[in-house]
Write a structure and sequence with these properties.
By secondary structure, this protein is mainly alpha-helical. The chain is 79% helix and 0% strand.
């Protein structure tokens, strides 16, 4: 019976000790949280009060170490805040970047660090806009120019990059007005090339006349409209050459030559009657080959030896694969979103 009483007392003591330890851990956690909250709020008195309360509760050494670190960080934050104020007033962006890095490493954040981040972010954004404007004017990238010039005007940016961009935008507006007839001539020529009748050499004359007229009115060779017109002229000259090659191919019986010119016509999106004749001739030759192959009953025929048809089919597959890799056949939904 005595042993049972002793055992019961021992269990009670263990339970009490456990409750005391748990209570101590809870108090430690609560005081550490109070200290950290006071530090983040810049409240030195709050840190001191939390440390004093921790002593009264008999908290562990870790709580007082946290209090010491909090006081050190608070002192560091005060000094850093003074430096931030001076850098903000001077708008010293490089110094602000340096101080913000120090603040981040020390887990310091207050109204001054927030103001510094806004100013640095604005400066970085303006630098990006200016860099984009410089690229746009150098490459005559109209989309990049319009996007960033609008942002520059909204932010009130100034400088050589902005001035050059504004000059280019003004010139672009003039060029677009000068290129009215030129664009109409380009559209007509493109439609003619894709039409049933195909293209004739004299069809290029209206485009050439429109280019000359636009140049006389002030359209420069650097204008995107001028460059686009000259690229179209070169492309149409290639169409004329291709049409001659198609005519020559139709006079022969080379399936390979016919397929090559047809592939080039498809790449140029041509749809003339000449293209249809080439396509029809290819079908005719393929049917003829198939018929001859079916009639060939030579007993010595070795199916393992590649035939001309096999070689042609393999070449056609390879050409189709190469053609499929062309970026023109790669589609992306809503690429600008």
């Amino acid at each position: 019976e005595a042993d049972a009483c002793e055992l019961g007392k021992h269990k009670a003591d263990l339970a009490a000790a456990g409750r005391t330890k748990l209570e101590g851990l809870v108090n430690d956690e609560r005081m550490i949280e109070a200290i950290n909250t006071a530090r983040k709020n810049g409240d030195a008195e709050g840190i001191a009060a939390a440390v004093e309360r921790a002593r009264e509760l008999g908290c562990g050494e870790g709580v007082f170490e946290t209090g010491t670190r909090a006081e050190e960080l608070l002192a560091k934050a005060a000094a850093l805040t003074g430096e931030l104020e001076a850098a903000l007033e001077a708008k010293d962006i490089d110094k602000l970047r340096e101080l913000l890095k120090t603040a981040e490493e020390a887990d310091i954040e207050n109204s001054k660090t927030k103001s510094a981040k806004v100013l640095v972010g604005r400066e970085d954004g303006m630098a990006e806009i200016k860099d984009n404007l410089r690229k746009a004017t150098e490459t005559h990238n109209v989309k990049l120019l319009n996007e960033n010039l609008e942002r520059a005007i909204e932010l009130g940016l100034e400088g050589p990059e902005v001035e050059a961009a504004q000059a280019m935008a003004s010139q672009m507006a003039k060029d677009e007005e000068l290129a009215g007839e030129l664009k109409a001539a380009m559209k007509t020529l493109e439609n003619k090339a894709k039409g049933k009748t195909g293209l004739e050499a004299e069809d290029l004359a209206p485009l050439e006349a429109a280019v000359t007229a636009a140049e006389e009115q002030g359209l420069t060779e650097e204008s995107p409209f001028h460059k686009e017109a000259m690229e179209l002229k070169m492309r149409m000259e290639n169409v004329l050459l291709l049409q001659e090659e198609m005519k020559e191919a139709l006079e022969g019986d080379s399936l390979r030559t016919l397929k090559k010119v047809l592939d080039r016509a498809d790449e140029l999106e041509l749809g003339s009657s000449l293209v249809r004749k080439v396509r029809s001739r290819i079908r005719e030759l393929e049917r003829e080959r198939s018929r001859k192959a079916a009639e060939d009953d030579d007993e010595d025929w070795d199916e393992d030896v590649p035939t001309l048809d096999d070689d042609e089919a393999a070449r056609a597959r390879a050409e189709k694969m190469d053609k499929a890799r062309n970026p023109r056949f790669h589609f992306t939904k809503f690429p600008n979103i």
